[in-house]
Amino acid sequence: MSPEDTASRHAAIAHHPVIWAVSAYRLTDIFRGIAPEFSAQADIHIINKGFADAVDEIQARLRHERCDVIVAAGSNGAYLREHLALPLVLVKVGGFDILAALTRARQVSDRIAIVTHKTTAPELGKFIRLFDLPIKERSYETADQARHCIRALAAQGIAVVVGPGLVANLADELGLHGVFLYSLDSAREAFSDAVEIARIKHVEASRHAQLDAVLQHLSDGVVAIDMTQKVLSVNPAMLRLAGSPETPMAQWLGKPLREVLPAVRAGSVLTRGWPDLGSVEQVGQRTLVINRVPVFEQGVQTGAVLTVIDSGDVEQVTSRLRLHQQVKNRHARYHLHQVAAVSTRMKQLIALCETYARRSDATVLISGESGTGKELIAQGIHNASRRAAEPFLAINCGAFTESLLESELFGYEDGAFTGARRGGKAGLFESAHLGTIFLDEIGEMPLVLQTRLLRVLQEKEVMRVGGRESIPVDVRVIAATHRDLLGMVEAQQFRQDLFYRLNILQVVIPPLRQRPEDLALLAVTLFDAAFKRAGLQDQARDIVKSVLPLFMSHSWPGNVRELENAAERLAIGCIALHGIPGPDDLQRLLPELHGPRVAGSGARPPAAAGELKAVTRQTEKAHLQSVLSECTGNQAEAAKRLGISRATLWRKLRA
Ligand SMILES: Nc1ncnc2c1ncn2[C@@H]1O[C@H](COP(=O)(O)OP(=O)(O)OP(=O)(O)O)[C@@H](O)[C@H]1O
């Protein structure tokens, strides 16, 4: 036998149906006769009592024993059904039972009566009339009525009475001949039905137990009521929410809802039969969210289920969800090989980042103008490092108030400040454990927080706001800034010790204007992406080719992000134009890339041969002059900023 077979056999034995067969009369003999046939399917106990005696005995035994189904017959069966809460199967009289009993009666006398409980058998009546048989038919409800009836029949000259046990016994007692109506087959059928009912009852009970187990463990409060608002079922969470966790559950069952949960009303769910979801109600100190759902059985409403959630729990779940979302969304998407670059400076920079990622776990400080790709590089470093499979969490230090930034970074304990979430909250350092945290705009971090950050970097431990214990964290920090951090250190706006702690590995991303060689590849890459998003990938290259001269003449103060935005705008413009944009369209779509319009005309001068070169040269010269004036005429500085030699700068300005 396999282990599964053994297990199911054990389960079957554990749930062997228990049937009590109850009769005060001769049906008991029939029960005894067939009980052995059912011994494999059920435990059958025979109780040789009837009516009130039987009820007393059954109730006494039920205190210590289990009974699934009762089998009984006639008026005794009807009495037991009325007085007991157990399922009961009545032994039924079949047509053949009647014929067999009448045959036995006829052998005694032809003055026969048949007396049945409650109703006479209609088929039998038809049969008697059809064959004009001298058989009298009677029915009774109580034992007294049966006795009365048999006396009357005796007075009418009846010699044999066919009927259930009570009737047959009374007939014998009153000097008539009693013939018992029930057969072995009718009792067998009743036992089979009883076994089946016990089986269904068991299946339902285990389903109920499963549901009950679910209810007991739900954190939402649940209460089921019937149409009269009586409590059918309730779970511990509901007791907790209602403020009476000590009340034993059984005390609630069957009581009116308003008595046990005065604060939770059924509302109109019972009268209107419509669900009422998400109703926010104040119950004492708590704000509860209550759902009321009607329950229907076969199309008829039989009650309602009320589920109750504490609004504090909802908020907690929502914030956890938000944090989870944040963590989930902030994984690093980019890899270093996706950084588009052909310039030697950028290629060297990418190789340096590869080394920083693979060979070191030290803090990295990325500096560069806005939009140069600092976050892209940070993600690339994370993805090339041993931390790639762990979280990458980014935060812009300039986007929060001091207190919010503090709690976001370091987390807080329960009750740390007004509005602090119950149970506290982990900060990004904790959430990024084993991974990387990207602190963008580090120059914007308030001095107080710089001190806390320095401590985290030194101790590799984080202390939540309002907390007493330090939590060890293993996080790599990559910081980024577009500001001159050293200048800020000198101006005492940035902690020197923190600067040196962050600046272990340096990455300086040059602005786009200092690496014009990258422009074409970047344009192709970003246009491809933008046009793909717009569903126009085939046109990207042609358009890049047509706009590149214009692009080359622009200084891209917004760097790669500006280029990305231009690509996006152009892609959308192409959809509207249904084709490649002409010079006018370009001017309209990308006005910042064009020089000032000719005063008064509202349009650019008419195109002439060689215009593009002239425009490019003019724009370049304007840009060189503006950088030169930014450097207060210092050519060496301007050349450095522009990424060209002093001689080239001089030559270009002369041209
Ligand atoms: N070399 C590159 N190859 C491909 N895409 C790039 C490159 N450099 C930047 N980008 C893209 O340009 C956009 C701006 O980059 P990113 O956000 O990394 O810049 P940033 O320096 O962090 O900007 P900010 O200082 O404003 O936060 C991003 O969409 C990024 O994917």
TrEMBL record:
Instruction: Recite the UniProt keywords alphabetically.
Output: ATP-binding, Nucleotide-binding, Transcription, Transcription regulation
**SMART domains the record matches:** AAA
Q: Where is the Sigma-54 factor interaction domain?
A: 339-572
Taxonomically, which superkingdom? Bacteria
Task: Identify the species of origin.
Answer: Polaromonas jejuensis
The record ties this protein, via InterPro entries, to:
AAA+_ATPase (IPR003593), AAA_lid_NorR (IPR058031), Homeodomain-like_sf (IPR009057), HTH_Fis (IPR002197), P-loop_NTPase (IPR027417), PAS (IPR000014), PAS-like_dom_sf (IPR035965), Sig_transdc_resp-reg_PrpR (IPR012704)
From the Swiss-Prot or TrEMBL record, give the protein name. Answer: Propionate catabolism operon regulatory protein PrpR
Q: Does the keyword ATP-binding apply?
A: yes
Keyword Metal-binding included in the entry's annotation: no
Occurrences of domain PAS (ranges): 207-243
Database matches in Gene3D superfamilies: 1.10.8.60, 3.40.50.2300, Homeodomain-like, P-loop containing nucleotide triphosphate hydrolases, PAS domain
Recorded hits in SUPFAM superfamilies, A to Z, give: Homeodomain-like, P-loop containing nucleoside triphosphate hydrolases, PrpR receptor domain-like, PYP-like sensor domain (PAS domain)
